[in-house]
Amino acid sequence: MDQPTLITVAQQTTIEQTIKKSRFIATIAPISSEVAANQVINEVKSSLPKATHHVYAYVLGDHNEITRQSDDGEPSGTAASPVLNVITNDNLHNVIIIVTRFFGGIKLGAGGLIRAYGSSASLVVNQAPRLQRQSLTAYQISLNYDQAEPLMNWLTERVVNIDHVDYGAAVTLTLLLESSDDTFETDLMNQTNGRAQILETMPTTAWIPYQSKN
C-alpha cells in the first residue's frame, strides 16, 4: 500500500505582527515526538520570558494520531483552536506552531483573538519552506571513472537526488528517482553505450522540496 503524501516544514521559522498594540510572534518547527515538541515550547518560553501568553498546537503521526493544544490563559477556543485549524487545513504533519503574545493594553474580544492567532499561524506557515514525503526508487549503479565525470551533469538533471557516491575500483552511485520513472534504465544505457552496471534497485521514501499542485 502506498504511503500517504505527507507535508511538513523544512526548518524552524518565526514571524511577527502587531495588532492593536499587541505583539504576536509565531514560530513553526518540524517535530518528531512529543519530547521534541516540548523542547521547542521551552525554548520559545525561555527566549521570550516576559510574554503574556504562549499559545501552541501541534500534530504528530502520518494520520495526526497525536494532537495537542494549549490556550495558555486565553479564553477557550479563541487561540489554540485557530492555530490548530491552520495546521490541519494546510495538511501539515509533524509540526508545532507557537504563537506568543505580548499584551498591548487593548482587548481584542473573542473574534479579534481568533483572527489574530489564526492570521499569525497562517503567516508563519506561508513563510516556512516545506517538504513532502515521496515514494521513490533507489538505484545503485556502477560506472568506470572515465564515464562518471561526463555523466554527472546529466544525472544531476535526470534524477531526484544523488544520495551517495563511493569511489572505489569503480564509481558507485546511489540515485533516487520517482517511482513512476520507467525510462531511466534505457536512458542510462543510451548515455553510457551500455557500459553502466545497475547493481540494485529498491523502493524507498525521502523528503523532498514541496511541489504544489496548484
From TrEMBL:
Residues 141-195 form the UPF0029 domain. Residues 20-124 form the Impact N-terminal domain. InterPro entries: EFG_III/V, Impact, Impact_N, Impact_N_sf, Impact_YigZ-like, Ribosomal_Su5_D2-typ_SF, UPF0029_Impact_C. NCBIfam families: IMPACT_YIGZ (TIGR00257). Belongs to the IMPACT family. This is YigZ family protein. Pfam families: DUF1949, Impact_N.
